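[Discussion] Sanity-checking designs against the backbone

I'm trying to build intuition for which residues belong where. Below is a structure token string of 447 positions. I'd appreciate it if someone posts a full sequence so I can compare it with mine line by line.
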């Protein structure tokens, strides 16, 4: 074997020369070895030709990383190569916390716009407000940066200071503030009470998600002591960590299998079961899904559906029934490799099929239907109400106030991606109707 082929084998396999012993190579069938070396020689020929003849100079690292990524992405849509920067970003997303300022941001007019400061974070305590524009970070102009570059500059080690220049509509001059970075936790769980129904939305499955669900329910329980049901909203949730999907399912189950994973070797099948104890025993539950609900979301929906713990409502989910393992590569990021398929408790594989809802409800816009409505006031020569003028003035003022408040709330919800209220969300409204109907039925059945 040539030195070049050995080098390429080390690069493609992610092994160091020390880890590759000659006796191990000899254990492979001779034919397989010869074919492998032949193909690696082909790769070496292409690599050298690109290096020497391509119209522009290309770095070795770029070519090798692209080749590795091409090899992995050709396997399936979810395998791939992560360079060091991408690997670090993925770790931040799955860990659910990082050193930073505590603001949700977007890019507008070339500047970083603050969508919202997160409560009890350095940015919140420093007085940063929604709608502020950040023009400079550590005296470096933001104009010309991408959003990811600006975010990367604002993140950093806990305890370090950062200077930001803020442009605020109500302030005549730019505001310069120094903020000390702290641990910021990504909020993957949001919740509120819909009357006597607990509404919990999970946007992704990070290391903080199960605890976030438990904390959200405990908070809602204090606000509404007599909760009649739970809506778990998994719409547009792309997934995340397998162990967190299992933990969230376990929150609402007290026994039985949650999910099983099966690798290529059938002896490597793993089964995960719920532990005794449940977050909300006996409470009726609806899980909302749509075609944006994938992976970990489908594990939760499938487990609760198979155990008949919840009614699944909405539209069919995405259908990602595979599990990826992230394998770090020394000094070279990591590879994300599909290593198994997962199955719901009843043995269903939802790969490329998705979870079918128990009740199909397409999203729709709720509108008032105009009808012919004749009133006393419409009759010719009807008497006027002597309080009409005062009432009209009060109603006009109230309508203006409501309209302004609704516009502000609508703008904020649109920016933050917050869940809509029931009157604006047809699927949620149907879930609430169902849960309240079930509560009435349960109440009458026990009398």
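Best answer:
Here's mine. Compare freely.
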């Amino acid at each position: 074997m040539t030195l070049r082929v050995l080098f390429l084998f080390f690069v493609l396999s992610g092994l160091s020369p020390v880890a590759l012993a000659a006796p191990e190579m000899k254990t492979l069938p001779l034919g397989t070895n010869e074919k492998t070396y032949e193909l690696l020689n082909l790769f070496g020929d292409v690599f050298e030709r690109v290096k020497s003849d391509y119209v522009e100079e290309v770095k070795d690292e770029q070519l090798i990383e692209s080749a590795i990524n091409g090899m992995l992405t050709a396997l399936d849509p979810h395998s791939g190569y992560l360079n060091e920067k991408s690997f670090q970003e993925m770790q931040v997303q799955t860990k659910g916390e990082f050193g930073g300022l505590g603001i949700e941001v977007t890019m507008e007019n070339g500047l970083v716009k603050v969508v919202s400061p997160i409560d009890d974070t350095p940015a919140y305590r420093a007085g940063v407000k929604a709608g502020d524009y950040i023009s400079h970070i550590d005296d470096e102009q933001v104009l010309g940066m991408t959003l990811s570059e600006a975010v990367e500059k604002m993140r950093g080690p806990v305890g370090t200071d950062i200077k930001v220049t803020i442009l605020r509509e109500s302030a005549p001059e730019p505001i310069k503030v120094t903020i000390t970075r702290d641990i910021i936790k990504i909020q993957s769980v949001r919740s509120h009470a819909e009357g006597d129904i607990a509404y919990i939305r999970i946007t992704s499955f990070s290391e903080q998600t199960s605890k976030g669900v438990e904390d959200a329910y405990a908070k809602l329980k204090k606000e509404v002591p007599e909760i009649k049901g739970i809506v778990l909203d998994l719409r547009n949730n792309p997934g995340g960590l397998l162990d967190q999907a299992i933990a969230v399912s376990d929150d609402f189950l007290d026994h039985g299998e949650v999910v099983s994973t099966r690798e290529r070797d059938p002896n490597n099948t793993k089964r995960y079961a719920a532990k005794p104890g449940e977050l909300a025993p006996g409470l009726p539950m609806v899980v909302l899904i749509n075609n944006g609900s994938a992976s970990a979301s489908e594990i939760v929906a499938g487990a609760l559906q198979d155990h008949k713990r919840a009614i699944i409502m909405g539209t069919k989910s995405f259908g990602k029934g595979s599990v990826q393992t992230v394998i770090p590569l020394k000094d070279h990021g990591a590879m994300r490799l599909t290593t198994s398929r997962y199955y719901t408790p009843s043995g269903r594989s939802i790969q490329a099929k998705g979870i079918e809802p128990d009740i199909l409800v397409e999203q729709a816009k709720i509108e008032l239907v105009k009808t012919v409505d004749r009133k006393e006031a419409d009759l010719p020569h009807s008497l006027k109400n002597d309080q009409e003028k005062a009432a009209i003035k009060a109603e006009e003022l109230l309508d203006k106030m409501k309209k302004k408040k609704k516009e502000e709330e609508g703008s904020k919800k649109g920016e933050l991606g917050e869940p809509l209220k029931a009157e604006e969300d047809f699927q949620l409204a149907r879930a609430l109707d169902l849960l309240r109907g079930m509560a009435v039925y349960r109440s009458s059945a026990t009398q």
